[in-house]
Amino acid sequence: MLDALGVADTDAPVEQLMRQAVPASIYTEATADSTIPRAASETEALAELRALASRNTVNRPMIGLGYYGTITPQVIQRNVLENPSWYTAYTPYQPEISQGRLEALINFQTMVAELTGLTTANASMLDESTAVVEGMLLARRAAKTASNVFAVDADALPQTKALLAARADAVGIELVTVDFAAGEELPAELFGVFVQYPGASGRVWDPSAVIDAAHVAGGLAVVAADLLALTLIASPGSLGADVAVGTTQRFGVPMGFGGPHAGYMAVRAGLERQLPGRLVGVSVDADGKPAYRLSLQTREQHIRREKATSNICTAQVLLAVMASMYAVYHGPDGLRSIAAETAAKAALLRDWLADTGAEIVHDAFFDTVQVRVPGRAAEFAEQAHHGYGILLHVADADTIGISVDETTTVSELHQVAMVFGGKQERAFGFFGTGSQGALPESLLRQDEYLTHPVFHAHRSETAMMRYLKSLADRDYALDRGMIPLGSCTMKLNAATEMAAITWPEFAGIHPFAPASDVAGYLDLITQLEGWLAEVTGYDAVSLQPNAGSQGELAGLLAIRGYHHANGDAHRTVCLIPSSAHGTNAASAVLAGMKVVVVATDELGNVDLDDLRAKIAQHADDLAALMITYPSTHGVYEHDVVEITAAVHEAGGQVYVDGANLNALLGYARFGDLGGDVSHLNLHKTFAIPHGGGGPGVGPVAAKSHLAPFLPSHPLAQRAEHAGGFVFEGGPVSAAPYGSAGVLPISWAYVRMMGADGLREATAAAVLSANYIAARLGEHFPVLYTGENGRVAHECILDLRPLKEATGITVDDVAKRLIDYGFHAPTMSFPVAGTLMVEPTESEDLGEIERFIEAMIMIKAEADATASGRWPADDNPLVHAPHTAVSLISGEWTHAYTREEAAYPVHALVAGKYWPPVRRIDQAYGDRNLVCACPPIEAFA
């Protein structure tokens, strides 16, 4: 590889290559001075993780507040969560090779829509609290009023209230807290109301009158509902809600100290095109057969940029798959049985507590009993914790909340009762699951749900195992081969890194457990924060953001808070290069900033003249510059230090987008480039798997002057950053440490790499990208390179000349790569008609050569079409991909042979991947929006 790049004969050839690629002004020499320990072996890393895990105490959480104990069926844990066919897949942008996870997601959407009683659900949200925020923003867009007032339930979850406050202020929304259940009046004018159902206190009541009042005022009603409760009580849709949001965590997804979990959002008819995030729909393929794909693609943020209605560009796919399969496995009867038993246990606890003379606050509830004990709440909680290992929720000095779930035993209910002075001995008998517990008769659910055959057909473990296997076989993930998606860094998620996430000491921890129970987690988080701060050149790190987009937002909110604290609230202009990731502009708008686009030059770099002009034009109002480094075009910009200095001189802050850190780690640091704040992608550079489109973790790192404005949380176990609990920016996620359950993956990655290994990985990634650019450059022009002709960790192949010469499009090449056994590179981003290729450091030379061979042969096929060997409308490229059925059914009438279609290279004969559907009609799916499970007859 080095020989092909002309550096093999030099001293230290890898370093020579990196010096050619990375500008001298930012190049950092290797150093032995690092706080990151020497690289550990797999065995050593696991032993250290065991030691950290042992410092966590897995007590029985009865805290509730949106997080519950749940039983993950082993068939789902082993065949989804621990299966690389599911966790190493990427977002289904190539739907022909993503049909398995798309079917799982349409199961998820159907499950959510039917349980909430609404028309359409999306393919998951980041968590419940951020989903509530998105519901608020949707309500403002869709409401028939100019009001900026949003009424919030006094009985909402505390983390949701905090998140709403943080997000509403930046976009000019006024929040008004109302005790709906107590009959308090709504504000005279509003654009929406938010109802928690059941309430954080456990209370169940009928909110239909509040919903009606909101509609009369021209507003929309957003209801956060517990899906398990909805198997027993009336759905939000039946009560008149416009939007339902929540979490699916208790559907078989471990608490994991706060995540990752799949939030959800569903809307009534007419609001489908307002949905944020991703939406899976049904279309047809080239044979007219049903096929799944992502619908309404124009909502993607890289297209809409500053006009985007949300900055969310991801989902929680792996967790949504788990939750949907929990419903598939249990079916409606099983879910109803689990819910009824939970309600019965809560009612039994109420009875036992009432026997002690305790005051029960609410008569109607599902799974949470609230008890009033004047002045003694903390005392009783302490007794439960230390006496029985049970965690209760101290709502205030006088009130305790006790939540039960499917894992709660009657013995534990007895122990809780004894804390309050109940009997020491009881005879426990069997109680059935037909009980409605303490739910009011008037709110009991009457309609059916989950009627589709998929929720009835897989009751045995055998059937479920085979269903999951059949879905995985329809997909292409990293366990099959390279996924060379530029800007996505699809690298190895090593088995040792993944091992700890299912250990009970990490998976079974409630996010609001007391600090004494989570010492191991806090140590792991502190170490990881320190390592990330060192390698990025920053002073403080928050691991709370549970997606890259949320990390962007957190960084911009920190900049906003800093300017406000300095009396510079007028600084609202955010400069963003035209080549930037689309989420940059969307995040800036949601942080209350005005986007001003800066031009890029013919090399893909920031146009310095235009930048200076924009800085001069907006000097008094300049808040920030957002810049991606290396650039979105895959090039190290030589003038980056000059760029950041110009912004600082004008009083602005510099946000360096960390999406491309895999090209920089160990060779330069964002903080040394002039960066004030950055987000990182743990699901890219630091080896957390993409999970088919989520989970993600997007930590935000900052210099010391911005540290007080990084995310914090009202329920955090410790004071965070310089600001302590007096947080300026507020939380950006529901849990204090975001998706903490997957942080052991990145901890293990850094621990086993060491500082030297991280640097070597960067060099290997850059070497691979430059090798591909050199080998393919004579067949496809490489669009952007640096001053020495080098690219960073990815290269952009320009297919526009190919289309002009042969008529073959970038889509044709992408689909033909499927026939060769490959996932296509990133299509038409950041430049239309191109492919952006990122091999990462994880691919060996054999796989890289296989890709190069495929691309060269596809170029030859295009040239053969142009020369007249095949007609322009009948060649292997325009009909790609080819399914097995399309090759064997009926008479073969194409101008090319079956062998040319299916086996363009001989190596495919031994292990061919067959796509399950032919090319999908994208436009048909948008014109005919169907986002729930189609009937079985559709596949006949």
TrEMBL record:
Cofactor field: pyridoxal 5'-phosphate
Keyword S-adenosyl-L-methionine among UniProt keywords: no
Domain Glycine cleavage system P-protein N-terminal: 1-420, 452-711
GO annotation, cellular component aspect: cytosol; glycine cleavage complex
Class of the enzyme per the UniProt entry, highest EC level: oxidoreductase
GO function term, MF aspect, one: pyridoxal phosphate binding
Alphabetically ordered keywords of this record: Oxidoreductase, Pyridoxal phosphate
Domain Glycine dehydrogenase C-terminal: start-end pairs: 761-882
N6-(pyridoxal phosphate)lysine sites (modified residues): 684
Task of the protein: The glycine cleavage system catalyzes the degradation of glycine. The P protein binds the alpha-amino group of glycine through its pyridoxal phosphate cofactor; CO(2) is released and the remaining methylamine moiety is then transferred to the lipoamide cofactor of the H protein.
Quaternary structure and partners: The glycine cleavage system is composed of four proteins: P, T, L and H.
Entry protein name: Glycine dehydrogenase (decarboxylating)
